[in-house]
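note to self — DONT lose this again. spent like an hour looking for the file last time. sequence + predicted structure for the chain T wanted, 641 res
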Amino acid sequence: MKDKLPKEAYGGVHGKDYVPYITDKSKKGANAASIIIGIVLATVFAASTAYSGMKSGLTVAAGIPGAIIGSMLIKVFARNTGILGKNITQGMASGGESIASGMIYVLPAIILIGKDITFLEGIGVGVGGTLFGIGVLALVYNYLIVEEHGKLMYPESMAISETLVASEAGGDAIKYMGIGVGISGVINVLTSSFLNMINNTFTFLGSAFYKWKYSTEVNPLLLGIGFIVGLEVSLTMFAGSILANFGIAPLIGYFTDLAERNTQTWNDASMLLHQMDVNAISGSYVKYIGAGMMLCGGIIGAVKLIPTIVLSIKETLRAKSNKDADGEKGSGEMLLLLGGIVVAFVAAFFISQSATMAIVAAIVSLILSMLFVIVSGRLTGTIGTSNLPVSGMTIASLVILTLVFVIMGWTGQADNKTLLLFAAFMVVAISVAGGYSQSQKVTYIIGGSKREMQNSFVLASIVGVVVVTGTIMVLSSQLKITGADAPFALPQANLMATLTSGIMSGNLPWPMIIVGVIMALFLFLLDLPIMTVAIGFYLPISTTSIILIGALIRVFVEKMSKSDKEKEVRVSNGISLSSGLVAGGSIIGLIGIILQVSGIITPGTPAGFAASNTMAIILLVILVVATTIPIMASKVKHDED
């Protein structure tokens, strides 16, 4: 067995001449054991990504943690499948995560506009988007994976491939993930996610003279996300929160204090302007400025993709071969594509108020989805799935579809729900396309079967649709809670609900939206990341501050490392530990809420010292120390001569 990938994996040869890591085509990675393991991982990552994404507004790609956990399980339960079995499990983990990363952007918005989601509605749009997205990407497989080998680098696919190869020799990744799960599990059981025995959020408020707010939620899940995404993203998000909480909110607070004593807020007749505290100001004014920033950022992102769209379509039309590099024919691409189209139209007639709405909305959704699915697949080859501008592509698609609805006169609340269900179809197709493209690139590099990956990825994605739809329905009572005490931030879903409801009703507070657009244009002209700043502006500062602390731990680890090799080992183990924090926090948090909602457990109410800011600060110190010490204790293994 080779101990590393061939150098040609990174380019230097034409794709059809590349010799993969495994050359024996008779070997298979998919059997009953590996598929069952993959289904378990797809379920876990779908549920955890749905929970953590709705909590933080960020999602973590499952390819690498899926490869690590899958490698361990394959060694125990399906050793005969080897690295090809490990590849199947990482792909299925990615399939479940990709579904969650898409559906949570839109589906909770239906709850936010005051409507309910049925299980069949969620399954219909989810499965339709899955089949359509994978079907379109499967048709351009040769172009993206083979013809562009060495040109599209697929950075995360190569990292996953290296992880799979490294797993053949063993490693410490599982140990550190276990430590992360343990830390996250203990803290989550003690805090509001489960038993609520101690306070895990410290908050400081400014005076009436200058209405500011600073807060930090001691949440291992969010700290782990910060370590994984790094300082640049975390600091940029925190900058958005600083602007919102220490700049815009106090400014609005100054002017509301000057208002006449009988002047009401624009959206709440029971609230007088001069009585608004910083939380009310944020909910009624600041968040709409943030919505304008995200809207503008999404549109700018979509416009910048126009050259990529044109290039992708040209290259797709130019692709000639129907036979893939691995010699497999007839892998069911057209069946998947047609299946997605059929499910889309069936779902459209099921959820729409009229045949006209079903036909028009389905056609527009399919066209927009096809364009952005191809773009998603290509961008994955450039920047990976973690950095895909899914929200930007979704916003652009949603605005176009909303305008179509308004032009057709479909502006009622029921129409808004239908619109959001079509948007869910589009975002699932866009999101799953990135994960599928990434997984097929790994399969190509390792030497697995394209057909095996395609079939297992479809299965995992459908499992993901069921799990995410069920998770959102179970958490619906929690998702309906808004304001400063909302357990879930839902930044993207809030934006979707705000935009569609406001445009269709004509009640969108355009002055605040326009201010947000102008701020986004300012960021664009300075070449700053609009969407990252906007999400930080929109999220509670309690979320962005703990994410930043996680990133600062990574900086500390890097600075305290004496050599590049030591830094590489510590950061790698830190990412594994952080993946455990995210997975443990998501699963324990989800279980805790289910037990609370079902009445099996009754959370307590912290009192006295346990409810104080000091308690939360002590808990933060414990979390930081418990996270940092194992990472710093990582040992560098020297190669033997």
